[in-house]
Design a protein that fits this description.
The structure holds three protein chains of three kinds. Chain B is mostly helical. Chain B has 23 helices and five strands. Chain B folds into two domains: 116 residues, no CATH class; 274 residues, ABC transporter involved in vitamin B12 uptake, BtuC. The chains are: A alpha/beta, B mainly alpha, C mainly alpha. Chain C: It is a multi-pass membrane protein.
Chain lengths: 263, 520, 370
């Protein structure tokens, strides 16, 4: 795609990823009360890529997601979505509507709504107050909900309150909510925590199938899971990138071994 | 002010009257004999001469007689011609009252003033030097200079030089007057100010101009002290706010409990003061020393009761806590109305609380306000010490930061909760003792402070004792600064609106707790 | 039909509205058609009392909309109610004309008393009914907008928000007590004579106001139910349950909050406007924080996030208040205080929740036996 300078024009709302990368994080710094959570972090995510991010606790993984989604503002640095969208100038809903979806570490769904309603609320589309007052589900939207429920295996739970789902099912529902949002970039924080081995495999399958169409960033602790899906792995340590490469390269990196195993 | 000056004089006089038989002997002196003869002629002119004669004697012992003459209490024995001071209601048989008239009384006052200036007692000299300012005339200047040279007491020296300058204001020579005016610049004595104000229209243009300049200096200085006074009022109001809020800073700030009955715990403290005073009516002066610990215990126990019966079940549900404790506040109010009285009850101030500390003639700090400020700082320091340096404080902070972890470390969190709440409530009771000295004590006392208290805590930043102190004091000062031009009610409204806007700008207050946890 | 679609799945609402409809028919019959002296006759004071309860019920719905569904515990809704009431009161003041004590045709009595020479600008237009009614909606609405916009945009939530709503009504209380504000100070607005030319003393006018209050309650109920049933309603509940999640799926939470807060404030304003002509007075006491927090307890007792529970709670508590303040005034405050404590401790879902639990358990027992 890098040769496609003629593709520079962008469709309305689509990020201009004409320079291969869809997400640019450059020289980011964040500190909380003197503690540097993010330290000169520079990271690029390509269009259609599936990237895993690993690192010990406190490496700044969640804070990085917070910056991308507008929850935390960095003290300095740049964060761009494509060529044209300055993430640091947008609020959380604006970033979401620009095409970045996020699944949280702790699954958060709308507990008193039914599973289908959760998907309805997350669905892309006009999200203004007056519009939502008169909004009705179109056939197309209904079809998308049904299809997504199929994908995440919750068709039988259509009318069930989301709060009554099991932990794994909530994880899936949240992934489903990401899908109906139709984002260009998915940020997935610990998607397989609390899942059985079987569920984990299905999740791996799903995430791999998403890559290509979407860019996917997965933060995960489970090394087997990371190995099963990742092409590119980035290791974060003390708020900056320690190593980057394939799983094998990273695992043999002396610095990474030190960080994980201690001196 | 005149009254306070008169007090020692009257005291001295009555003392002298008591010993008047002893004084009889003094009448042997030449001045007395001559004066008595002049008085006996019963003419105003001769009386005037007699006064001058006595005054010229320079003998301080004649002062009581002159004073008695001024007060219409000086009589002359019709046969022996001796002078007698007659106490109120005493018999005047065989005595003749010595009459006076306005002009005589004026010279009497001047004479008494001058004579007192040579009293061996420095405080008498000071009083009379101050008293001189109202009656001073240029011809007294040489005499004052003489006295000033001999004077050793610095306060009297100052008063005398002021009197001298006042005397010089009326001097004939322009340079003397100008020098006097210049020396008076910045002097806060109201007499000086009045005098200079009249001189700004003096026929001598140079004098008028100098007077204006000196007056300006006086007004600037008075304004400065005016600010100081506003600051003091503000700090004392702020101290009240801090006292009312600091207990809340613990229950709300440290524990996260919204206690709407906080105001009523303050009220209970105030009523405890009332009851303590009822129990020891003979010793009002000491009542507060009993009331402070009593109120701490009463309100603290009530707090623990509330925590154990209601709040304990509502941890993690702040809005429900708010409603339940509001219900408790209604019950406590009604309880006081039913058991004691729906009316306000009288709480007396100990005598050491009345009066004021005079810095100078435009700035005086009333003791009750001064004590409130000191008391507030003491309570704050004590509380800070308890939370920072004691084991209980350590446990309280541990539970407030991570309940589960604290419990795992062996902290009995239920007990800590009860004690913390008791501590915050007890402090509310102590605040009630302080408030009972400033406002009416009635069932609604607490209600009027609850919103203010919350504002202070929220403005200062929840969970931060220093924030509460700074917020309370600064809100108090802002309130008092606004009051002169906005009026008390509007000032309060403006402060409320300001806080509402401020919270929206900085939802976590002046001194927010930082860190990632605080952002969730 | 529209209404049936709105009330589908809302048994409580259906029953409540049916009872309301019966009351709205029965009360006029008992008051106007049954002759006085007959034991079935309903005296007018009772009609007015019921009318007052109905306006309280509407106010309670407004509070339930923001508290039950949006999760914002407003301790300042009494302010919106009072502002609506003042707007109506100003119209009624202007209708007095020269029949006041001072007989001044241009100025209300309290202005004459304060030696004011002319009407302040903010009293202009209130002689026109339509303008006053517009203000009944606009004044609370605009205040809610400004306040909500500031508060929600800077993400003030939870107890902080509750406390500043309380400060808001407290500030207004202090302001309206001032004579200089031009709203009658301490005494407020009173001595009203008539509305749109009809005497406020007449039975027919009072009956009309009662019926209007009932209709307003029904209308307010249907409006709230319509909002809750729409996608907007689902978003609002989503905000209540997981505010930041709602942001991350792309909703501008503050817009939704402000919108609902405004609707709620306007409903409260309408309630206030219907309340004032029936009780005949509006004074700054309506702004007192106690009033606002009392509304919350009506909703809590009835059961929040049910709407009909708010109606039941408002009417029950106020009926109890009328009865007990009459019988033993001392006891009422104790009872109200105890209600706050007991409801939050033992009845978190309110009466509506209690009924639901009973129904569930009975159903459960039947199933077990079968």
């Amino acid at each position: 795609m890098s040769e496609g300078a003629h593709l520079r024009h962008t469709e309305a709302g689509q990020p201009d990823a004409s320079h291969t990368a869809i997400l640019y994080l450059e020289d980011l710094n964040v500190s909380f009360d003197g503690f540097k959570a993010i330290n000169n972090l520079t990271l690029y995510i390509d269009k259609g890529e599936l990237r895993c991010i690993i690192g010990p606790n406190g490496a700044g993984k969640t804070t990085m997601m917070d910056i991308i989604t507008g929850k935390t503002r960095p003290d300095s640095g740049q964060a761009w979505f494509g060529q044209t969208v300055d993430l640091l100038k947008l609020s959380e809903p604006e970033i979401a509507n620009a095409g970045i979806g996020r699944k949280f570490q702790k699954p958060t769904v709308f507990e008193s709504h039914s599973v289908a309603e959760n998907l309805e609320l997350a669905m892309h589309g006009n999200k203004s107050v007056w519009y939502s007052l008169r909004a009705r589900l179109s056939g197309e939207q209904q079809a998308l909900i049904d299809e997504t429920l199929q994908t995440i295996g919750l068709t039988d739970h259509y009318h069930q309150a989301a709060g009554a789902l099991s932990h794994g099912q909530k994880q899936w529902l949240e992934i489903g909510m990401l899908l109906v949002q139709k984002p260009y970039l998915l940020l997935v924080d610990e998607p397989v925590a609390g899942m059985t081995h079987q569920e984990m495999e299905r999740t791996a399958e799903l995430l791999t199938s998403l890559a290509g169409k979407h860019s996917v960033v997965v933060v995960e602790h489970d090394m087997d899971f990371v190995r099963s899906i990742a092409h590119q792995v980035t290791v974060l340590h003390q708020g900056s990138v320690l190593a980057e490469g394939t799983m094998d390269e990273v695992q043999n990196d002396q610095r990474v071994i030190e960080v994980y195993l201690g001196e | 002010m005149l009254k306070t000056h008169d007090l020692p004089r009257i005291f001295l006089l009555s003392l002298l009257l008591w010993f008047s038989p002893l004084l009889q002997a003094e009448q042997e002196s030449a001045a007395f004999t001559q004066a008595a003869a002049l008085f006996a002629e019963a003419s105003f002119d001769k009386t005037g001469e007699a006064i001058d004669l006595l005054a010229a004697s320079g003998d301080p012992e004649v002062v009581p007689y002159l004073q008695a003459l001024l007060d219409g209490k000086l009589y002359q024995h019709e046969e022996q011609g001796t002078l007698v001071i007659v106490a109120d209601g005493a018999s005047t048989d065989g005595l003749r009252k010595i009459p006076t008239k306005n002009s005589l009384r004026r010279s009497l006052r001047a004479a008494i003033g001058q004579l007192s200036l040579s009293s061996p007692d420095a405080s008498v000299r000071l009083t009379s030097a101050n008293g001189l300012l109202e009656t001073i005339t240029p011809d007294m200047a040489p005499q004052l200079r003489g006295l000033l040279d001999k004077e050793t007491d610095p306060a009297v020296q100052e008063a005398l030089s002021l009197g001298l300058a006042m005397a010089d204001l009326n001097a004939a020579e322009q340079p003397v007057r100008l020098a006097a005016i210049a020396s008076l610049a910045g002097n806060l004595n109201p007499g000086v100010r009045n005098r200079l104000t009249t001189m700004t229209t003096d026929s001598d243009a140079a004098v008028a101009k100098a007077a204006q300049a000196s007056l300006k200096a006086i007004e600037d200085r008075a304004e400065l002290y005016g600010y100081a006074e506003t600051l003091f009022f503000g700090l004392s109001l702020g101290s009240v706010l801090v006292l009312a809020a600091i207990g809340l800073a613990i229950t709300f700030g440290v524990m996260g409990v919204i206690n709407m009955a906080h105001g009523e715990l303050i009220m209970l403290g105030a009523y405890t003061t009332y009851i303590v005073q009822q129990l020891m009516p003979q010793a009002i002066d000491y009542s507060l020393f009993v009331a402070v610990p009593a109120a701490f215990i009463v309100s603290g126990l009530m707090g623990i009761l509330i925590e154990r019966t209601v709040i304990r079940h509502l941890y993690g549900r702040p809005l429900e806590t708010l409603l339940a404790t509001f219900g408790i506040s209604l019950i406590l109010q009604q309880l006081v109305r039913t058991v004691i009285s729906p009316q306000n009850v009288p709480v007396s101030n100990p005598s050491w609380m009345s009066g004021s500390l005079e810095i100078n003639s435009v700035l005086s700090l009333t003791y009750n306000r001064l004590y409130i400020v000191l008391f507030c700082l003491m309570v704050f320091a004590l509380l800070y010490f308890v939370l920072r340096k004691t084991n209980l404080g350590l446990q309280v902070r541990a539970v407030s930061q991570n309940r589960a972890m604290a419990r795992a470390m062996g902290v009995r969190s239920a007990r800590v909760d009860a004690l913390t709440f008791g501590l915050g409530s007890g402090i509310a009771g102590v605040a009630g003792v302080a408030l009972s000295q400033l406002t009416n004590v009635g069932p609604n006392l607490g209600q009027s402070y609850i919103i203010d208290s919350f504002m202070v805590v929220v403005f200062g930043g929840v969970g931060n004792l220093w924030g509460t102190l700074v917020a309370g004091l600064s809100l108090g000062v802002v309130n008092k600064v606004l009051e002169p031009w906005a009026g008390a009610v509007l000032a309060k409204i403006l402060v409320l609106v300001f806080i509402i806007l401020f919270i929206q700008k900085r939802p976590r207050g002046l001194f927010p707790q930082k860190g990632r946890a605080a952002g969730d | 039909m529209f209404i049936t679609r709105i009330l589908h799945n809302d048994r409580g609402g259906q029953i409540m509205l049916a009872v309301l409809a019966v009351v709205l028919v029965l009360v006029p019959v008992l008051n106007l058609l049954v002759p006085e002296g007959n034991f079935l006759h309903m005296p007018t004071y009772l009609v007015t009392l019921l009318g007052k309860y109905l306006t309280y019920a509407l106010l309670a719905i407004a509070v339930d909309l923001v508290w039950g569904y949006l999760g914002i515990l407003s301790l300042g809704h009494g302010a919106f109610f009072a502002l609506g009431g003042y707007a109506m009161g100003m119209y009624l003041m202007r209708q007095i004309g020269d029949r006041g004590v001072y007989g001044n045709p241009n100025l209300p009595d309290f202005m004459v008393f304060l030696n004011w020479k002319e009407m302040p600008w903010f009293w202009q237009g209130f002689d026109m009914f339509w303008f006053a009614m517009l203000m009944v909606l606009l004044v609370p609405g605009v205040l809610a907008f400004v306040f909500g916009w500031l508060a929600f945009r800077s993400r003030v939530t939870g107890v902080y928000l509750s406390i500043i709503t309380q400060a808001l009504t407290y500030a207004l209380l202090l302001a309206f007590f001032r004579n200089e504000m031009g709203f009658g100070g301490n005494n407020g607005l009173t001595d009203f004579k008539d509305i749109l030319g009809f005497s406020l003393q007449s039975d027919n006018t009072r009956m009309t106001l009662f019926v209007l209050s009932g209709l307003a309650l029904a209308g307010g109920y249907l409006l709230c139910r319509f909002i809750i049933n729409s996608k907007l309603g689902r978003i609002v509940v989503a905000i209540r349950d997981a505010e930041s999640r709602t942001r991350f799926v792309g909703y501008r939470v503050e817009h939704y909050k402000v919108w609902v807060f405004m609707v709620s404030a306007m409903l409260a304003g309408v309630a206030g406007a219907l309340y004032v002509p029936q009780v005949g007075i509006i004074n700054p006491g309506e702004f007192s924080p106690l009033n606002s927090i009392e509304i919350v307890i009506w909703v809590a007792i009835g059961g929040r996030a049910t709407l009909y529970g708010a109606v039941i709670g408002a009417i029950l508590v106020n009926y109890a208040k009328t009865v007990f303040t009459g019988l033993m005034p001392e006891s009422w405050i104790f009872m109200l205080g105890a209600l706050f404590v007991l409801v939050t401790l033992y009845l978190p879902q309110g009466l509506a929740g209690l009924v639901q639990n009973l129904k569930d358990s009975r159903w459960f027992h039947k199933r077990v036996q079968a």
